[in-house]
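Annex B.
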Amino acid sequence: MKKSLLTLAVALGMFGISNAQINTTPQASADVGMKPIKEGNWMVGGSIGNIGYAFESNTFNFALMPRAGYFISDGIAIGAQANLNLKAVKDLDNEWGYGISPFIRYYFPGGASATGRFFGQGDIGIAGSSAGSGVGLNVGANVGYAHFITQTVALEGTFGYNYSKANINTGDKASGIGFGLGFQIYLPGRR
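Outer membrane protein beta-barrel domain-containing protein: predicted structure tokens.
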């Protein structure tokens, strides 16, 4: 009798475990429309990797750019981003950079889908570096695509042109194209 009860308990336990293992696929997109980019909403996130090539100095760059913005109207956000980067030059010491740049971002209404939006972003700011070359100027113009994986989170890809001048009083400058991968979290406002 004990063996029968033990066998029945094990069988019921195995049946319960097998029913609990429901296979689900991860969510890859969400139908959001205009909801995340409405006036009064906030966005927080940034580029977790920005890889670029500078034409003048044959250098490779890697940057981390956290950002936060506020939607002043539907599809238009203003905010600020921090620029934390590493510049690697062949046969020289690595250079660490830092800075802050206000930005404006516009989400294009045309070409949009229910799960994503194309956008353009422009920024201008100041920067410094571990090389101690003084205060510099940073300017960027990028285009990108935000793909919403949930109602409030989007993965982004960007491509654009960036210009920096290490010291405003000298002729040292660098320009180049770059691409980035990042994410944004869209938070609803009080409206």
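Residues 35-187 form a domain with the Porin fold (CATH 2.40.160.20). The chain has one domain: 35-187. Further annotation is deferred to the next reporting cycle.
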